[in-house]
Design a protein that fits this description.
The complex is a heterodimer of chains A (281) and B (783).
Chain A (H helix, E strand, L loop, with lengths): L6 E4 L3 H10 L5 E3 L5 H6 L7 E4 L9 E4 L2 E5 L4 H6 L1 H6 L1 H7 L5 H6 L2 H7 L5 H9 L2 E6 L2 E6 H4 E3 L2 E2 L6 E8 L5 E8 L9 E10 L2 E10 L6 E2 L1 H8 L4 H5 L16 H21 L1
Chain B lengths: L19 H5 L15 E7 L5 E7 L1 H5 L3 E6 H4 L35 E7 L2 H8 L3 E6 L6 H5 L14 E10 L10 E12 L8 E6 L5 E5 L4 H12 L6 E4 L15 H13 L3 E4 L2 H7 L3 E12 L5 E13 L25 E10 L13 H19 L3 H8 L6 E2 L5 E2 L4 H12 L1 H14 L3 E10 L7 H6 L8 E7 L5 E5 L8 H13 L6 E4 L17 H28 L6 E4 L2 E4 L2 E7 H10 L11 E7 L8 E10 L6 E11 L6 H20 L30 E6 L16 H17 L14 H12 L1
Parallel strand pairs in B: 1-11, 9-10, 13-14, 19-20, 26-27
Antiparallel strand pairs in B: 1-4, 2-5, 3-4, 6-14, 7-12, 8-9, 8-11, 12-13, 15-16, 17-25, 18-19, 18-24, 21-22, 22-23, 25-26
Helix pairs in contact in B: 9-18, 14-15, 15-16, 17-18
The chains are: A alpha+beta (281), B alpha+beta (783).
Chain lengths: 281, 783
Amino acid sequence: MIPARFDYDVAESVDHAVELLGEGGGDAKLLAGGHSLIPALKLRISRPSKLVDLGRLSDLAYVKDAGTHVAVGALTRHAAVAADPLLQEHCPIVSFTAGQIGDPQVRHRGTLGGTLSHGDPASDMPAVILALGGELVARGKGGERTIPAAEFFTGVFETALAADEVLVEARVPKLGASTGWAYVKANRRAQDWATVAVAALVHRDDGKVAGASIGLVNMGGTPLRARAAEDALAGGASLADAAALAAEGAEPPSDLAGSAEYRAHLAQVIARRALEQALAG
Amino acid sequence: MSATEERTAYIGAPVKRREDAALLTGRATYVDNMFPPGTVSMVVVRSPYAHARVKSIETSAAKAAYGVVGVLTAADLRDDWKAPMPCAWPVTEDMKSPDHYPLTDVPCYQGDGVAVVLAESRAQAQDAAELVEVDYEPLAAVAGVEKALESGAPLVHPALGTNECYVWRLDTDATGQAIDEADVVVTRTYFQPRLIPNAVEPRSVLAVPGTTGDVTLYSTTQIPHILRLLAAAGLGLHETKLRVVAPDVGGGFGSKLNVYAEELLALALSRRLERPVKWTEERSENYTATIHGRDVVTEYTLAATKDGTITHCRARVKAAMGAYLQLVTPGIPLLGAWIYSGPYAIPNYSVEFTGVFTNTTPTDAYRGAGRPEATYVIERTMDALADELGMDKLELRRKNFIEEFPAQLASGLTIDSGDYHASLDKLLEALDLDAIRAEQAKRRENGGALLGVGFSTYNEMCGLAPSRILGAIRYAAGGWDTATIRCLPTGSIQVITGTSPHGQSHETSWAQIVADQLGCDIGAVEVLHGDTSISSIGMDTYGSRSLPVGGVALYHAAEKVIDKARQIVAHQLEVSPEDLEFADGTFSVKGSPDKNATLASVAFGAWAAHDLPDGMEPGLEATAVYDPPNFSWPAGAHAAVVEVDPETGDARLVRYVAVDDVGTVVNPMIVDGQVHGGITQGISTALYEEGAYDDEGNLQTANLLTYLVPSAAELPSFELERTESPSPTNPLGVKGVGETGTIASAPAVINAVLDALSHLGVKDIQMPATPERVWRAIQEAKS
């Protein structure tokens, strides 16, 4: 209910945030929308020495056309991502998925950068960015670096970000007309995390599947690509046969929302539905 | 208003709730909003183990922390308690009852309190609580009700020598035929999950010491009167020295019908410190520190002749008590003990309840208390029996419905009134079953989501309760209630009720009843409650009792007021009282309507007392105490329509139609609200909520993330209808509505899920019917 004691600083710029993080001695936390962090603080599960508030960095809230890709600032809120016309046109799986996160309150406070850097394998957006082959831009003391999504998510609540790095931007490719997409989420209540969700991108060639990219939510310690299913599709397998391989190699968790066995089954069912939807869409 | 003007009755009208303006604009008074000067915050240090012995507690670091006023353990407070924590319902003479005090050094469930920390602020108290170092020796624990009864199971209270708290039986044998000799016998075993109440307002307690050894306890309670009596006994106080106030209370569902450790702790510590002491429950704390509901295993048998005439019902119930007996823990199963025959005429009746201790949070009253447990097993087994007989499920119900009222039950009680066919008729009119069956068949053929429809025809007994019956079943108190009506000289009316609303809208409904009877404007009526210094006597609010007991007391008090006023008017107009008629707030002489007097003018005259009959006391005020001669018996017919995804197992409710007969309806809007909430809780039991412990007694569903309380997004709009069989046992004809929805709805939903899957051969799914459970049931049926 009441967090343990912490220091609080307001970042005036990204560089200032990096500096403040550095002063935090490795356990400072960035505060953006706060929808994951603040409940954890209140339960005293998370006990950072310092919070660095990014709330004033309004220049990190943007969606920009960057030629081959769309660049989204880390402090863009989910509701803004969901409603953004540029994303809706060029990478609609991102805007659609943003509209599936939590509930309206969460979407109006939570940020894209927050959900990505939190590294929760049950969150919606990481698997989408992974399936898209997106890139994440981080800024630290040494300047900026670009991290491919495939290298960004390293474990449960763990990412490739250093303790004094700030995620500033996510880059997602523009999808051409030949790419169909779907995000299918199985959860209990509207606001719940996914028991399992599947992000599917299907590259169509003359109405047939030329290739696919499949991201899995909550099927392991990080968001995953369903490589076996992707390979099967590339090799000409039917959607159903490929989807049957969706859980191949995954080690899904067992919890109150579902056992590992059920999750593996669920992944196959909704992967098939997502692929069918993506192919048709 | 002139005597000739037609006034519209308030009873039956959807008068808007008078409570809402304050609640919706943030001007309500909840306990946690109160900060008397000098208030000390209390935090309870709770056991992380389900069963342990405290070897030592090191408090020095906590005591030295900034702002800390005190740290106390069970040993420090032992002499403060003049009585153990109260259990008011020793259901059998030899019921086993463990020692139970507000703090313990042998915690018996996860969350049992071992120490308290007091500090100037809540944050300081919480920080210091982390510094209390408790050295626990973990002991073997048992969490499941059936496991606790196995031989060799860990004992929750070794001193008792058993986990069996009591066995209680009720058997009748009208026909002398043994159950096994019936043509068709169907026995099923059901587990009804543990439920964790989630009132919008968690509990909060504030004890404020006075200057004369008195103390005022503000508490989020449903029972200020019962709490005063028992808390005074617990502390060895004169009852007159304890005032209990239940201000605005944000829901209870039975969870605030108790005497809690924190109430006694705050009282004792406020007296020690001579400072106000406040404790407010955290949401996650609510999951272990506040009572739970259900957690019951029932083997239920129905026996019938080949033509579907049911001859026997038999229930064998194992009910989890949890670690201790709270206020009415052992009695909860018994609240269903007389209705295991449902709305059906079944001549042979047998029930047996075994109360079982487990290392879990104590169970106690939760919306429906004992009756949902009964209705669930009856309505599930009615479907199973119909299958066995090859008979239509509704035809079986109709064939066995009780049809004549009052109806003497084999269990011994008498149903006041009802028309069970009428409710079912109305349900089927609204439902369009043929269309649902056609759609169901189409979907089975074409694939995709399956459709199912399930029914629950129910009755229940509420309006707790005739005092004599309560005495006969060993409950410690009566079931009457009281009301006072005071006519102020200006014509305003004060109503004081012994019931204690916490969401039930008494301030509106009670005013409707009084305004109709006294023929005044509803705005003239003020309803006072929830403060023992204003309403000194009462039996409070639970068990759908307020209207059929407290509301009827109100009726009788109004009659007394009218009688006295009649005497005064007769004296003043020099006519005999019998020559006066009273309508729309005015007495007039029969045949000479111009000779009249309004009740307001009589109130002024009674106050001035210039011209009263000889020997009459001044003032126009009356108190009535009403003890109901019988329970009241709502009933109805509910139907749920669900869609089930056969691949994922996900079951979603798509329609819910309810026809309820709750007797006379005072305010249809408020009744609809009660039915909405009740149905939601039953649906939630069927599809979402489950308080789960692991084998070591660790609560797995310890917050709103893992314990699934559905939101509006998961529910369709409910279709509500009513039939009306007024209760003949009270002059208002009312029955009570607080629990009907919860009692009826869970079996309708599960029956619907099973109906959707019937072609696959699925016969049973344990509540809640999670996607995984449904999926597994389908897999098992296939294999």
